Amino acid sequence: MASPRANWKGSLTIADLNCPVALYTAASTAERIAFHTINAKTGNRVRREFVDPSTGKPVAREQQIKGYALDDSHMVLLEPEDIAKAVPESDKRLTVEAFIACDDIDTVFFDRPYYLAPAGEVAREAFLVIRDAMREEKVAALARTVLFKRVRTLMIRAHGEGLIAHTLNYDYEVRSAATAFEDVADIKIKKDMLDLARHIVETKAGTFDPAAFDDRYEAAVAEMVRAKLSGKPLARRKDPKPAKVVDLMEALRASAGMKTDDPAAPKKAAGSAAKRPRKAAGGSSRKARGKKAA
């Protein structure tokens, strides 16, 4: 198997310590099913063109420049050399500015994950010293560098045999949660309802197993393609049943597997889930998946 290609190479710098490192993509959408746009009459793939709305004619690539809209009627035109001047210079250093607790940053600020590994045999010892020190202290590093033409802040922490670096969203990119939650009223919840809800949470306790989660859309598209190739009729999707409007307490009791007319349901719920084994989230076990794969 060919070695992965690094997205970026430079030095991880902590005070006077420099360690040559390489960044590798940790998550990719390259394996997702992708469609092409086809001319239904000819069966040929179509291509996109930039068209001037006034003349109706295509604009050649060499005639295309960038524009920054001040408002609906004013546009600042920018030549490629203008944009090049705005790109910050890179010294290829991933400079650590501070060490923080691993859970100090809200995950809403996480952008993209990258694996951070030593670049070459010479860097291995320094890399392992940094990794082990961060792991023992249970801290993450906040570092900055020029990455893909922008100054980016990254959170770096120990991960397996190496380090993982998350680029962080800028503050202006993260929307305030206040708007999303403005209609969430602060009301007093009845104790028996809360007891039932806790019971449901306990009975659903599990562990995260990413292999147990299936991309149903990808699977459905693959099945559709196979049916098309074999000339089989496509299965008609069943219409979802309309959701029933039920009393909240009845829904909680039903979810907890109790009779809705049992007045002692909350008390039974409180202690009935203490010794239930945890199951992997996703709805299928590793053993079952192994048989399926075989």
UniProtKB/TrEMBL annotation:
Organism domain of life: Bacteria
Keywords recorded for this protein, A-Z: DNA damage, DNA recombination, DNA repair, DNA-binding
Keyword DNA repair found: yes
Residue span(s) of domain Ku: 56-185
Pfam families tied to this protein: Ku
Segments of skewed composition (Low complexity): 266-284
InterPro entries: DNA_bd_Ku70/Ku80 (IPR006164), Prok_Ku (IPR009187), SPOC-like_C_dom_sf (IPR016194)
Annotated stretches, region: Disordered: 256-294
Cross-referenced CDD domains: KU_like
GO biological process, one term: double-strand break repair via nonhomologous end joining
Role of this protein: With LigD forms a non-homologous end joining (NHEJ) DNA repair enzyme, which repairs dsDNA breaks with reduced fidelity. Binds linear dsDNA with 5'- and 3'- overhangs but not closed circular dsDNA nor ssDNA. Recruits and stimulates the ligase activity of LigD.
Family matches, as PANTHER family: NON-HOMOLOGOUS END JOINING PROTEIN KU
Quaternary organization: Homodimer. Interacts with LigD.
Similarity comment: Belongs to the prokaryotic Ku family.
Protein's UniProt name: Non-homologous end joining protein Ku
Source taxonomy: Bacteria, Pseudomonadati, Pseudomonadota, Alphaproteobacteria, Hyphomicrobiales
